[in-house]
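How it folds
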Amino acid sequence: MKKFWNSRWYDNKWFLRIASLVFAVFLYGMVQASSPSVTSLSNLQQVVSVDTTETISNVPVKLGKHDDDIFVSQLQETVTVTLTGPKNIVSSLASGNLVVQTEDLTGIETGQQTLKLEIPGLPDSVKYQINPSRVVVQVARRKTVTVPVEYEIEEGTIASGMEVGNVTLNPSQVELTGNEENINKVKRAYIRISNTTAHNRTFTGKFKLQVVDADNKLLDVNANVSEVEAHVELNAQQRKTVNLVVAAQGESNSYRYQYQLIDASQIALQGSASVLENIRNIKVNVDVSNLTSSATLKGQLELPEGVTANLSGPVSVAVTVTPITTDTSDTTSSTPAASSSSAVEEAPTTPNQNGGNANPGVTEENNANPGGQDVE
């Protein structure tokens, strides 16, 4: 025996190889003995469905069956749904187009109503909970009208020096549907044309449709479109220089009046060609009703709508007032009459028909001042 241990058998490589082989065969046998249970578990998972629960948010709510002549408002747009059932079915429903609808509304009365929510068409193996399970709505008679679309252009949308030409809207009219009370309140349907930067050329854009009442308050009605396309044509504005004319109010028969423009005798205008074509001069309105002696007054420019000018604010006008004396010794004398302000306005003017000076911002001082003559 002593000789056997002294032979160091555990250092013999052949012995170690044989021992390793025996141990490997032993392990293989153990694995094979346990494999039927592993296979059974795999097969079990294939034939048995495990129940699961899944919660889905923002599920849309639609109307159930209803009469065509009713309109339902204040209906909640989305709800939360919890599904419980076979995992494969629940997963399929959760990833699909799940829809919640109201109960059948056929023959429902008008006014405030509480409606039950449900999910039709689910398998019997799937249970569900809807939160909230009921909604409070307003039921009214339905009415539909067709109205034209109007537009507004916000200040700052059009660049300086440009004017709006033709505006084409698509669609030019919309169909509105709602409860009869709200539809009867409709004043207009319109869009607000705007942009973050001013346009200096023709442009096209889509803008949100708004439906309002007489107080410009939004109405709860449905339109067949939510946006309207607007094609806005822009044209460069024209320029024209014309004379300033003093238009006096409140003249007295006891005085003579003479008017002299101090700041400028002409004004450079900018606007559409159709408007500028009809402008011959621009009035400077002054009130002399309380004037009994010479003074300098501030006159107000009377600019037509849609026209801008190189002058802004009041215009200084020198008014010379002279009392009229009556010679009582002359029995044939008559009472002098002061001319009206219209005589001042009709003083000869020579409007610039070619668009004015090369620099319309520069005014000219000259002695041919309209209204610069004596007025009696």
Observations:
- Helices lie at 2-6, 13-47, 87-95, 180-185, 273-276, 341-345.
- The mean pLDDT is 82.
- The longest helix spans residues 13-47.
- The CA atoms of residues 130 and 200 lie 54 Å apart.
